[in-house]
Structure formats: structure tokens, C-alpha cells
Amino acid sequence: MIKLLSLIATLAFVGFGVVLGLLNPTLVSFDYLFDQRHIPLSVLLSVSFVLGMLFAGLFVFTQVMRLQWKLHRLNKQHKQQAIEIIELKKQLHRTTPSAPTQDITLKNPG
Prior knowledge:
By secondary structure, the chain is mainly alpha-helical. Helix content is 70%, strand content 11%.
């Protein structure tokens, strides 16, 4: 199912790129820091789209990795605390004297 959705998404992006290329054949000037180029608008839009997707993916990846690291650290802390609770319960059970049993005999007054 995932492969089918991935294939559909890929075909949609390719179709989007083809439509961009057909609808935007004009040349535009692209100025960057030390040079200027004339490139088709569709290429400029496609490159901008791909770069935006890559930057967004990088941002999401770093956030996911940060949260996974935090989850790992919290799971480790949770295991340590669970072990400590078990040890404290054992220690409490050993040090608490059991209540002495007393024979209570009821005297029948009558």
C-alpha cells in the first residue's frame, strides 16, 4: 500500500513538473551574488520547489532525531527509576517488622 502511494505521489510530482514546463517556457533573469543567468521560468520554479522540499525534509529530520534522542534518554531514566522503586520496595519489606500476632480471647461474661 505504501509503495502504491509513493508511486502515485511521484507521478503527481512529475506531472506537476511537466505542466510547469509547458506553461512557463519564458526566460527570466536570475541574479545571484556574482553572476546573472537567463533560465526558463519552469526550471527556476522546479529548482526552487526541490530545494524547498529538501530544506523542509532536513528540518523535519533534525526535529525527529532530536525527539528520538530525548525519548531514548527518558526511557533510560524511566528504567533506572523503575529499578530504584523495586529496590526500595524490597528494602521496605525487609526492614518493616511484621506485626506481632496477639491472641485475643474473649471472656464470656455470662
